[in-house]
Amino acid sequence: MPFLTSKAARRTLRPIADLIDQRIERHVRRALRDGSTVRSTTAAASTSDAALQEELKKLRSRLRPLELFFDGTGRGMARLPSAHHINQAIDELAQVTGDKDGSERNVAQAFRLLIAMEALGVGRIAGGTMNIVGKLSAVPLLDPPNDEVLEIGTLYGMFGAALIRMMERAGREPKLTIVDPLAGTQLQPGASMRDDASGTPVQGAAVRVNLALAGAAGAATRVQQGFSEDPELRALISDRSYGVIIVDGDHSAAGVAADLEWAEQIIAPGGIVVLDDFGHPKWPGIKEAFEKHMAGETRFTFLGHVAHSGYLRASA
Ligand SMILES: C[S@@+](CC[C@H](N)C(=O)[O-])C[C@H]1O[C@@H](n2cnc3c(N)ncnc32)[C@H](O)[C@@H]1O
């Protein structure tokens, strides 16, 4: 059971180990106080040690089904962030949004939602736990100027569905548009993508199943199959101004540069752009494209980052 030897499992099991240590200590102290011989103390301790081993084995076995809610099996990444990472994300979120109480509340609600969506949906949400939770929390707190949301690169549509739910929790009426080639697997130019950990093909049917989890707004989502740089697709999607644009498609510098350039044209005044995997060591092209873009003429101001996502606001 490799999960039980992982850092996360050690963290989870630490309170139980501490409890066992305390029990051993109590037992030895009592034996010494009662004036037992060293021999009887040793014998009692080894009996108790065997009993404790047995208890630990039972506890581990009981923990296994609970771990399945949080470990990385079937989604490639465990969903058990440390207290440090949760608090860090809350602090970063509060800095980006200026809302400390809202940040704490949204992080808690978004974390529960992420676990629930991956439990009920097909496929998975891409990326690290605090990065996903940060995006789901930040968007409603940044109070976008309208409810039109564009997600460039959706994979299984599960993040979009979760974002609909978070927007609705803030009393908004999100209308989602999705652009993705939905090519059977995740496409990333220049990167070799292995079979997905979830075992689910990246296709329209999976996206629809996940969107259905988000009720009426999920079912009403516009799903446009294709590449975000395609002029015909752009013409179709550029029929409105978006309050929120999630840039999470082609992660190469050229791909991100093209998406940012398009976002300049279709973002509503005061709108929010989320730049996913910003500063992620695996995807250096994202920050490279961002820095080049911001050095030129732009409507965007950088608000900050939460985990590996950057946040920009268009001028009003
Ligand atoms: C990292 S995944 C998106 C993850 C999703 N936003 C989430 O949070 O779970 C990137 C997706 O973008 C798609 N993609 C790649 N190139 C694209 C392009 N030029 N336009 C739109 N989508 C693209 C990939 O095939 C993949 O489905």
Number of strands: 7
- Biggest beta sheet summary: 7 strands, mixed
- How are the strands ordered across the major sheet? 3-2-1-4-5-7-6
Strand content: 5-15%
Weakly predicted, low-confidence segments = none
Distance between the termini: 54 Å
Number of helices: 12
Overall structural class, as computed from helix and strand content, comes to alpha/beta
The radius of gyration over CA amounts to 24 Å
Ions, cofactors and other bound molecules: S-adenosylmethionine
Q: Order of SSEs, N→C?
A: HHHHHHEHEHHEHEHEHEE
Integer average pLDDT: 92
Helix content: 40-55%
- Dominant shape: elongated
Oligomeric state of this protein: single chain
Task: For the structure shown, list the relevant keywords.
316 residues, alpha/beta, seven-stranded mixed β-sheet, binds S-adenosylmethionine
Quick summary:
This protein has helices spanning 2-5, 7-33, 38-67, 83-97, 100-120, 129-141, 158-169, 204-212, 215-219, 231-237, 253-266, 284-295; strands at residues 148-152, 175-180, 222-225, 242-247, 267-276, 300-306, 309-314.
